[in-house]
Amino acid sequence: MSEEPSSGLRLKKKLKLAVGKSRSSKNFDRSTGDSVEKAVRKGKLRPAIDNVKRHRVYGGENSDTKDTSLTDVSKSKRKSLFRRRHDEEVSEMPSVLPSKTFNRSFKKQEYAVRSSKVLYEKRKSRGEKDHYVECLRKSYSKNTKDSIKTLNYTEKKVSKVFYEKRKSRGEKDHNVEYIRKTNTKNTKDSIKSLDSTEKKSWGVSPSDPAKKRDSKKRGENGDSELLIDQPKRRKLTILRNPYDLSNKRLDDGTITDENVRQEKSKTVQKDKMSKNAEFRAIQPSKSIISFVEENLLGRRRMIEIERAGYNTDLTSPLDNIPFSKSEERERIEENIFRNKLTFFAAAKVSSSFPPPDVPEIAFAGRSNVGKSSLLNALTRQWGVVRTSDKPGLTQTINFFNLGSKLSLVDLPGYGFAYAKEEVKDAWEELVKEYVSTRVGLRRVCLLVDTKWGMKPRDQELIDLMERSQTKYQVVLTKTDTVFPMDVARRAMQIEERLTRNKSIVQPLMMVSSKSGAGIRSLRSVLATIARFAKV
Ligand SMILES: Nc1nc2c(ncn2[C@@H]2O[C@H](COP(=O)(O)OP(=O)(O)OP(=O)(O)O)[C@@H](O)[C@H]2O)c(=O)[nH]1
Ligand SMILES: [Mg+2]
């Protein structure tokens, strides 16, 4: 026999393929060509159920095993096949397709409804009543009425029973009490509101839409008592007067006290700045600068004074001859100022002025400018004239004799002083009277603080002296408090200001009673008066 399969076998194979039992079928073992049942029986394959079970129990553990058995393949295939069939079923299913019988019955029903509707409308047009509809309506209304009635009845009955029970026990029904209270409160409120509206008449008319809305709301809630209008709460309004600073916020950029103050201080500062700038721009003359440097005027360092040969251990060291010994220190160049300074008269009024026997030199100026101190410095007799750091110490016109040929007069200061306004006014009047009327007054030394310069009251006195043709000389005091350049600037400023004045005596003097700078120069100027004075 030949090894080729016979024609009958080939046909059988073909038939098997046609009905789906080929070698690729799931029940066929490829390695041997046996069926699955046979392979299982031989022990080559595990039964499919076992495999499934293991997958269920050790799903996670067996997932990484490479052993993909035939049963696994068949399972996935089964799943995909099922999915395909299901999809096909879904796609083939009609959306809504009623059967023929259902369609027929539906059409019949529709026809019946339509015909009944037509009939009902025909009857209605004829004025006839549809008995069926009427019957339905009657029965419905009767039923509802009955049900409401029964409900009310049972409610009443139950509440009545409860109420009577409580009453018998002597208890109060809280609901009843609450309703009673609210009723009385509302009525009281409404009466009050009516009274207040009558009295105050807030201008809310009964046709006020807000009021209407309010009453409507209350009506919806079902509180018939609340329908009586409650007093409408008055809206508090704050009057925003633009000039009333009390209503203003501080940070709203509007005018407030604080803002006004700040603005004022700013303008004052601006003025100050401009004045300072103006002062710095002053160019002093060469003569003034040289005078300042020669007399070591202005704020100087001790080392500078020592280098110049002055003994800094002495009071007002610059009022000494440089490199001098103690005997020489006591010697003053101007003989007149070596005389003893003696107080002889004090006047509060013009009538008490002493007789003008000797020529007089008066020292005028604002309070605390250093008048009394200068008298002491000129005569080098410390403590004869009382001084104080408190403005207003000298309150009378004090007359001092410097020998028999000259009198020095210490005047009370004007401007700021620790004294009553009336008293200060009286001093000023006395000073004005003295400088304008005093016979024998040869010179008024008008003292001006170098730091602050001339003030309006100084100008007033100058004007007065100009009118009365009293000779006056401006003396800058306390020069040791400012820089030398500023001393020169101040001197220049005042000189420029008073150039047109006739009664002024030049040059302008600059001194410091503390350091002694410029004192000798002033002495020599004043000594000339005594020399040529004729009473
Ligand atoms: N640094 C300095 N201080 C001075 C100078 N002269 C006076 N003083 C001080 O200024 C203050 C006032 O001095 P007074 O001589 O009393 O001034 P006054 O002008 O007589 O004052 P009234 O009598 O109140 O008008 C005192 O504390 C003095 O020590 C000076 O040249 N330099
Ligand atoms: Mg004084």
List the helices and strands and how they pair.
Layout: H1 7-18, H2 36-42, H3 48-57, H4 59-62, H5 70-92, H6 100-126, H7 131-169, H8 174-200, H9 209-221, H10 257-280, H11 286-294, H12 302-307, H13 326-330, E1 341-347, E2 360-365, H14 371-379, E3 397-402, E4 406-410, H15 421-437, E5 441-449, H16 456-468, E6 472-477, H17 484-497, E7 509-510, H18 519-532
Parallel strand pairs: 2-4, 2-5, 5-6, 6-7
Antiparallel strand pairs: 1-3, 3-4
The structure holds guanosine-5'-triphosphate and magnesium ion.
Magnesium ion is lined by residues 371-372, 393-394, 410.
Question: Would you mind describing this structure in some detail?
Answer:
Pfam families: MMR_HSR1. This is EngB-type G domain-containing protein. The protein has 535 residues and is an alpha/beta fold. The longest helix has 39 residues. It contains 18 helices and 7 strands. The N terminus is likely disordered. It folds into 4 domains: 80 residues, no CATH class; 30 residues, no CATH class; 32 residues; 247 residues, Rossmann fold (3-Layer(aba) Sandwich). The chain starts with 6 loop residues before the first helix and ends with a helix. Bound molecules: guanosine-5'-triphosphate and magnesium ion (MG). Guanosine-5'-triphosphate binds next to α14.
